[in-house]
Amino acid sequence: MTLALAVWGLSQLTDDAALLVSEPATNAMPHARGDEIRVSVDRLSAARVRVSVADESGEVTSRREAGGAYDESGRGLFLVGALARAAGTAVTPPGKRVWAELEAGSGRDSGGRCLRP
Question: pTM value?
Answer without folding.
Answer: 0.77
